[in-house]
Design brief:
Layout (H helix, E strand, L loop, with lengths): L28 H11 L9 E5 L4 E6 L2 E10 L4 E4 L3 E2 L8 H15 L3 E4 L2 H9 L22
Parallel strand pairs: 4-6
Antiparallel strand pairs: 1-2, 2-3, 3-4, 3-5
Helix pairs in contact: 1-3
Length: 151
């Protein structure tokens, strides 16, 4: 696989669907991704592969040479990852990418025998809707205690 020529990072502001920076008139990026996780928690995802870039601390969803989504993390040093913020490029939203990326990250965490601290409300909401992953939350350092969606 060739390295993408322009790396996308996640502290960027995406325009809303009407093209306004910051999403003032329509759904924010977080709300769009949350809607996907809540409305279609088991939907088949867009076809992509996941790469754990340990050097930069990001699980990346890759299609061809394009990074379409990411979930940055920090290693806490005690067998625990701090999951930071799920982000999906606008043109790949509502296709199951966030849901499947989170699922694969949590499956990898389980395989590695680690736990997670969650600062990403989207990951928290995913786990609320998929309780089979709740055992991965570090009991001493759970992070965010609820997602951003109230059912």
């Amino acid at each position: 696989m060739t390295e993408p020529t322009e790396r996308t990072r996640y502290a960027i502001e995406h325009p809303d669907e009407a093209g306004h920076p910051g999403g003032k008139g329509t759904l924010s990026q977080d709300q769009v991704v949350l809607d996907e996780v809540i409305d279609h928690p088991h939907a088949p995802a867009f076809d992509f592969h996941v790469v754990n870039d340990e050097k930069t601390g990001i699980y990346e969803a890759i299609v061809g040479d394009t990074e379409i989504a990411g979930l940055p993390y920090n290693e806490a040093g005690d067998g625990r990852l701090v999951l930071m913020a799920t982000s999906v490029l606008p043109e790949y939203r509502r296709q199951g990418v966030a849901t499947e990326l989170i699922r694969r990250v949590l499956d990898d965490v389980r395989t590695r025998g680690m736990t997670v601290t969650i600062t990403c409300p989207i990951v928290r909401t995913f786990i609320e809707h998929n309780p089979e992953y709740a055992d991965l939350i570090d009991p001493q350092h759970p992070g965010a205690t609820t997602g951003t969606h109230q059912s």
